[in-house]
Amino acid sequence: MATKILMPQLGESVVEGTVSRWRVQVGDQVKQYDVLLEVSTDKVDTEIPSPVAGTVLSIVAADGETVKAGALIALIGQPGEDIGAAAAPAPQAADRAATSADGAPPCVFSENASAAAALDESRRLSPVVAKMATEHGIDIAQVPGTGLGGRVTKKDVLTYLERRDLAGPAPVLPTLMPWEMPGSGDLFKPAAPWSAPAASATASERPAPMPPAAAAPVASRPPAAVSRAGMADEELMPLSAMRRSIARHMVASKFTAPHVTTVFEADLSQVVAHRNAVKADYERLGVKLTFTPYFVQAVVAALKAHPQVNASFSEEALILKKRVHIGVAVDIGDGLLVPVVKDADDLTLKGLARTIADLAERARTRKLTPDELAGSTFTITNHGVSGSLFAMPIINQPNVGILGVGAIQKRVVVVGDAIAIRPMCYLSFTFDHRALDGALADHFAAAVVKHLETWR
User: Could you give the residue numbers annotated as active site?
Assistant: First the structure.
């Protein structure tokens, strides 16, 4: 019996997807977990692996076609198999399309009833969880699941890894599953000689865009320039779907919220010393420690002290968020993505380092899911990686604030009555003046600085 391949639902708010590119053709032999196609939204390209081994009998949705979640897009079976009945539309297929409990899409949706019946629902894994289990040599049966129906989520795996790390070094990493490679991440680092990329935004216009609501294909490389009729000295470069989305959200944010920016300077001597002391130990456990987790943890502490900043604004009230989800902007070359560290206040420095590295790598390789780009309650953007000292970032709606992190540089400063050389960094906090007054914004920024300067 042929297996129906249905368009996956790539997030709770995403109801359709665009076939960006098929990796296979009719007649091709595929193995289980071989990548069948790439599905795109405004900002995310997701590789969809095959749930079964077999022959591609039919491709229903062509490249560039946008189809609803749960719609039939291909058939896989045995050569010469009759696909007449299998090619009929699946009743209520969209209702059966499900998203995994940790927000990542299932490998693929299949209507092969005998195969589906054999699966233990609590052991079905998203690609993210399956990759992490393979990468770290985890027996998934040993991980308690807190997701729907006892399903193991990404947060469950991170918690398990933190507990296991206390017992000793990580095991030798086996060969990774084919759909994803592990992340490394290097969002925040000391200033170093830097060569600007061919196309980059100005320092003051590097905002954190909102996650998309509608699906559209994403260009995998900068679009080719198009000649402008009658203008020999000009060319038009078509806007990618991502660039259009960024432009739309930036204009909406500036139109919606009165932006005000306050700038503080932080002495990172304690942070640098701590990182140098523990970096080697982290690396032995397979964790790359950058400066990113330090900034995230400092922001989390400041948000706990000033909950009005962990909020969104409405005409009726300031909506305080009980959970802390930190968006971290990542430059991906031809645009900007803001993956979200969910429940950042529940993670240790090591947990933050592991999570941020994974999200950053998958952002750069276009393997994030839409749900991993949604739900931030506060955002951090690091313009300092390009040498920028400070900027005035645009708020990632519906947040009421965004923290810009400048380059870390050794500078001469006065400490007491002495002159010293310290690793310094400018922090620019842009806030929505409808929700926050200047005094509260300064108190919040000062709390971030204090946490960094008194790191223990």
Answer: 433, 437
